[in-house]
Amino acid sequence: MALKDTKMIYEYDYLVIGSGIAGMSLALKVADQGKQVALICKAGQEEANTYFAQGGIASVTNLRVDNFEKHIEDTMIAGDWISDRAAVEKVVREAPAQIQALINWGVQFDKKENGEFDLHREGGHSEFRILHHADNTGAEIQTSLIRAVNKHPNIHIFTNYYAVEIITQHHLGIIVTRHTPGIKCYGAYVLDEETGEVHTFLSRVTVMATGGCEAVYRNTTNPLVATGDGIAMVYRAKGLVKDMEFIQFHPTALYHPGDRPCFLITEAMRGYGAVLRNQSGEEFMQKYDPRLSLAPRDIVARAIDSEMKQRGEDHVYLDVTHKDPEETKRHFPNIYKKCLSLGIDITKDYIPVAPAAHYLCGGIKVDLDGQSSIRRLYAIGECSCTGLHGGNRLASNSLIEAVVYADAVARHSLSVIDRYDFNHDIPEWNDEGTISNEERVLITQSMKEVNQIMESYVGIVRSNVRLIRAWNRLDILYEETERLFKRCKASRELCELRNMINVGYLITRQAMERKESRGLHYTIDYPPKK
To answer: How many CB atoms lie within 10 A of CB 452?
Structure first.
């Protein structure tokens, strides 16, 4: 580490950008092998999608009734047969070992009195295979990993640091295009939000673990830090990004106008026996799928969207009042508490719900080792496109994918890291001649516009006309924001806006390119074949 004016130059074996289950489990695995790790958190350590995952983590553990082949088949069906079968087999078969790794780090999954895991079943799963910790599994995993990371001497945590750009040959004055062979990543420029300075982090290996991008939508279950930063950075660096059209809308977010993000009503509640009803109290899923409320998320979300539009209503209901009240409170204590705070007793009252943007199935394209198309750069977790999810994610496959691919990246990168040196020719971040940000309203208003564009035109049901309108509106915002970025000092808000526009563009463009309704991408111009 060297000092250059007020800007710092850091050197680490690993630069891990993102602190959810993917980033932290990777950091722990390589740090255990003596590597020095910088863990970049754009906010606090708990501010990650992992923390808000309620339902659980999928793995075959009850071998009396379940097996790998069933889990593989369920995943392929949910993904509408677009999934990469090699990636599916990898995640499913390696899942039990990574569950044990989580337990070794202190994660406690609920068990029955006989000591077996208390498994849930969720939509699209043929068996009970969801390990959980009450209805806040993500929080249990996140806090357990935070404890392990914080006490590891080889992991250095940078909270409220924001990665602005990854560093490639482009920053050495070399022209880089999407056809340039051998693009390499040498680290990243990272903003210290407290001082406003952009520091240089050099690394042998860089790992993108920045999570999803659903904050580009107005209604989302994700924390508002999910602005697609890693995907946008890699796209600008000419890396390959794939399947961005496949945005999963969770069917049952708590409908409470004004809340952003929306509170998630876990899929496990429908697995437990909750029933969807319209505002007249009538069940309606029988009109859409024989699996009723346990159909995959895309089908349920479109069914709810259809009911709401047909009836001119802004939500439907989830009914769990027929179940034992004490059992319901025991299974879903946080949902019970949240709803009660709004005057809804879920043991007696219907829960108002509506779909909200929840998960991205695409992202930075990686191979089975988690390598991106840019050398020395890996991607894991929701920001990556492994091929596991295909056209639609099977419930609770996301957390297990993150930890399985973190293990794959650890193994592969450790086998090659000694070949890589630090590149000391990288210039420091140049912001000479820029000014401090102008009125914040220029940024906040543009963010609202992005949210409105994506919600209105690139949502659950799409059309060519809507997508073209989104494209044109985003193009105007892109030009305005790039001019602002060149004129002003980097700030988190400005960089997030820039990334949101990039990601919105990618979702829209790749949706326009898919000339079919498939998985989560549903367009009225190419209706699904009967």
So the answer is: 13
| 293: DSSP letter | G
Say which residue the tokens 């505002």 belong to: 279
SS3 letters across 97-151? HHHHHHHHCCCCCCECCCCCECCECCCCCCCCCEECCCCCHHHHHHHHHHHHHHC
Question: What's the pLDDT at 1?
Answer: 43
Predicted confidence (pLDDT) per residue in 150-198, tens digit = 999 999 999 999 999 999 999 888 888 888 889 999 999 999 999 999 9
Q: What is the DSSP string of 25-73?
A: HHHHHHHTTT--EEEEESS-TT-SGGGG--S-EE----TTT--HHHHHH
Torsion of CA 397, 399, 402, 405, to 10 degrees: -50
Active site residues: 297
Distance CA 478, CA 490 (A): 16
Residues 221 and 264 sit within 8 Å (Cβ to Cβ): yes
DSSP for 423-446? Answer: -TTPPPP--TT-BS---THHHHHH
From CA 180, how far away is CA 373, in angstroms rounded? Answer: 11
pTM to 2 decimal places: 0.90
